[in-house]
Amino acid sequence: MVRNCVCGKPIPHNRQLCASCITKYGSDQTKWAEWLKFWVQDYQRELDCENMHRHFSIDVNEGIVEPKPIFKLNGCRTETHLYEDREKY
Asked: CA 54, 75, 57: angle at the middle one, nearest 5?
C-alpha cells in the first residue's frame, strides 16, 4: 500500500511524515500544528476505510464489484408505541 506524506512524497506504510517533514514539524505529535494533526487523522481514517473495503460488495456470479446499496429503514422504528408495552413481554 502506498502512503503519501502531507507534502506529497511517498512514505512507508508505518510512517506518518517523510524525513524532511519530520525535521520541519518534529516527531512529537503533541507539538504539531492543529491543521497537521487534523490532516494526519483524516488521511488515516481514509486509508482505514479503503482497507476495510466496506464500500464494496462482490457479485459472485459475474465477478463485478459494485457499491453496496444503502437501505432506508421503513416502518415504525421511530414510533414511541414500540416502547410503551415492553414490560408485558
From this structure: 15
pLDDT tens string 3-50: 889 898 999 888 889 999 999 999 898 999 999 999 999 988 888 877
Q: Are 47 and 34 in contact (CB under 8 A)?
A: no
Vertex 75, ends 74 and 79: CA angle to 5°?
A: 120
Candidates 75, 54, 56; CA nearest to 64 is 56
Separation CA 73–CA 19 (nearest Å): 49
Reported pTM = 0.54
Per domain, the residue ranges of the chain are: 3-67
CA distance 5 to 64: 32
